Each structure stands twice: as structure tokens, then as C-alpha cells.
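Field log, afternoon session.

UNIT: design team B
ACTIVITY: writing a sequence onto a fixed backbone
BACKBONE:
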């Protein structure tokens, strides 16, 4: 299973737009270079083929301005700052009359966040956190230990501080540690994650209200939207994700069918 994953990653990393590349500094460099080439080609085409002899000073500077604007923006900035509207708001589910059906639809929308790499990397079933968009094993090797905070000599917080360390690429948020094993989500469907989240035996004894509070305000959840170092963030915002979970709970917290995908 792990081998398959690694194989797929290697195959797809031949593309400069593969998930692992998007958001990296190298991606930004290739993006800007390709964009500039496209701009020069288009201007050449305009001068020589489309309107030979008609290129005025004004139209040349107009073209240049358009391309500067298009090529100059940071592609990584866009990756890091997803629009709130990438995740649908609870009100957009108002037309679903049946309460259970509405709750299920709300949860499926919220699960687009739950199954995002920024979240599942910290909700693994084994002893090691994962990292990156391909869920590879945490490097350096670390283990959850007895309290999900690392072993005695390698505590998570020896490296992970309260905020991201930009130069060292170490992500950070207060009290950085792994979700306990019963909260493992890797490879689970939204329906299975939903059942786990509602079950006090597997969710750390939380009531639905505590789950809503956690989703809306927990700093480890919130970190996913400011992950630093060019990492991609989940869709929407923590506020909108929290609102979806709150609406799901209000509507009776029905879970999607086991096989439903996000
Ligand atoms: C020796 C230092 C060190 C220790 C100890 C450590 N980490 Fe990390 N961790 C890192 C570094 C460095 C990265 C970033 C790797 C990269 O992206 O290049 C990282 C990345 C991660 C990520 C990936 C974020 C993402 O989505 O890509 C998670 C999750 C994580 N660590 C969890 C933990 C947990 C939980 C512990 C304790 C059990 C822990 N780490 C202990 C150094 C450490
Ligand atoms: C740095 C590690 C880390 C990251 C990143 C992280 N979590 Fe967690 N998560 C935890 C820990 C630890 C707990 C247990 C907290 C507790 O019981 O008080 C937890 C518990 C939860 C719970 C509550 C109980 C349950 O049944 O799972 C929810 C919901 C949750 N996380 C959602 C998310 C979402 C959504 C994201 C991404 C947007 C996320 N988490 C990212 C570490 C993390």
C-alpha cells in the first residue's frame, strides 16, 4: 500500500504542476519563466503576423502591462490563500428539505477539509506523523510515544514551536502533537470519519458541542490555513469549516453513507 503510494508520487512528480511541486519555490520560478516566454511569443506573433507594421508605442506598452500583471503575481500566494468561497456556506444547503439529508450533505462538504493532507498528516493510524501532499513518512523519523507528543528524547515540541519557523520549514502551532490513534483518518471515507467524530469512545469523550468548538477554534485545526513554507491549505477558512460542522450538528448530525466520497 505504502509502496504503491510512493510509486505514484514518483510518477507524477515528473510534472512541474504535480501536487508536491505546486506551492514550492521551484514551482514559482518555473511558473514565472514559462509565463514570460508565453508573453514574448505572443508579442512577437502580434508584431510579425497579426498586425505587422501596426504596432504602436501605445499598444506595445498596453500588451506589456497586461503580461506584467499576469506573470508578476505569485502563484504560491494563490495556493496559500484560498478564497472563503472555495468551501460552500451552510446557507447554500437550505434548499434541501429533509433534515438528515441536509446534515449528510453538510458533512460531505466539510469532509473536503477533513481529508486534506494538512489534516490527515496529523491524524495517522500508525506511530509516525506524515508530511507533504503525498503523505510520506515524517522525516526525520519520529514516533508518537505514550502520550502522542513524541518519545522522551524526541518530543514534537523540541522542533515544532508555537508558530511556523520559516527558514527551517518547521510548521508550528501551540501544543503541537499527534491526534490519538482512535482519531485516525488516513484512508477513511467521510462516512467513517463522521461516525468516529460522533463517538465519545473514539473522539476523546467529546460532546457534539465540544466537536463544534474544536473545529471552529482549535489552533492545530486553524494552522492548516496558514501552513507556511508554500504548503497548500485546505479549501475555505476555519470559520467556514466550523460553520459547516455547527450546521451539521444542529441538523441532527446524520452521517453520509459509508461509500460516499468528498
Ligand atoms: C527533529 C525535529 C522534529 C521533530 C522531533 C518532529 N518534527 Fe514534525 N516536522 C519537522 C520538520 C523539519 C518538518 C517539515 C518537513 C518539510 O516539510 O520539509 C516537519 C513536518 C511535520 C508535519 C507535516 C506537515 C505537513 O502537512 O506537511 C507533521 C504533521 C509533523 N511534523 C508532526 C510531528 C509530530 C506529531 C511530532 C511528534 C510526534 C513531530 N512532528 C516531531 C521536524 C520535526
Ligand atoms: C499538529 C497535529 C494536528 C493537525 C495539523 C490537525 N489535528 Fe485534529 N487533532 C489533533 C489532536 C492532538 C487532536 C486531539 C485533541 C483533543 O482530544 O483535545 C485532534 C482532534 C481533532 C478533532 C476532534 C475529535 C475527532 O474525533 O477527531 C477534530 C474534529 C479535528 N482534530 C479536526 C482537524 C482538522 C479539520 C484539521 C485540519 C484542518 C486538523 N484536525 C489538523 C492534532 C492535529
Amino acid at each position: 500500500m505504502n509502496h504503491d503510494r510512493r510509486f505514484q508520487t514518483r510518477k507524477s512528480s515528473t510534472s512541474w504542476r504535480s501536487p508536491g511541486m505546486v506551492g514550492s519555490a521551484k514551482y514559482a520560478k518555473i511558473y514565472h519563466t514559462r509565463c514570460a516566454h508565453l508573453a514574448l511569443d505572443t508579442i512577437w506573433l502580434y508584431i510579425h503576423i497579426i498586425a505587422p507594421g501596426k504596432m504602436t508605442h501605445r499598444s506595445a506598452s498596453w500588451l506589456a502591462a497586461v503580461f506584467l500583471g499576469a506573470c508578476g503575481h505569485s502563484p504560491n500566494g494563490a495556493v496559500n490563500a484560498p478564497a472563503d468561497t472555495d468551501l460552500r456556506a451552510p446557507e447554500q444547503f437550505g434548499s434541501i428539505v429533509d433534515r438528515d439529508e441536509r446534515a449528510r450533505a453538510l458533512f460531505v462538504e466539510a469532509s473536503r477539509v477533513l481529508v486534506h493532507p494538512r489534516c490527515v498528516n496529523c491524524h495517522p493510524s500508525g506511530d509516525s506523523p506524515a508530511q507533504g501532499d503525498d503523505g510520506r513518512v515524517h522525516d526525520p523519523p519520529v514516533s508518537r510515544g505514550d502520550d502522542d507528543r513524541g518519545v522522551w528524547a524526541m518530543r514534537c515540541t523540541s522542533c515544532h514551536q508555537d508558530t511556523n519557523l520559516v527558514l527551517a520549514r518547521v510548521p508550528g502551532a501551540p501544543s503541537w502533537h499527534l491526534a490519538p490513534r482512535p482519531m485516525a483518518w488516513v484512508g477513511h471515507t467521510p462516512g467513517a470519519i463522521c461516525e468516529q467524530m460522533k463517538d465519545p469512545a473514539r473522539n476523546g469523550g467529546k460532546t457534539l458541542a465540544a466537536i463544534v468548538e474544536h473545529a471552529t477554534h482549535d489552533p492545530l485545526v486553524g494552522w492548516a490555513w496558514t501552513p507556511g513554507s508554500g504548503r497548500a491549505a485546505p479549501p475555505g477558512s476555519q470559520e467556514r469549516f466550523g460553520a459547516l460542522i455547527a450546521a451539521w450538528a444542529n441538523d441532527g448530525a446524520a452521517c453520509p453513507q459509508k461509500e460516499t466520497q468528498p
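LOG NOTE: Residues 2-80 form one domain.
NEXT ACTIVITY: expression trials, pending approval
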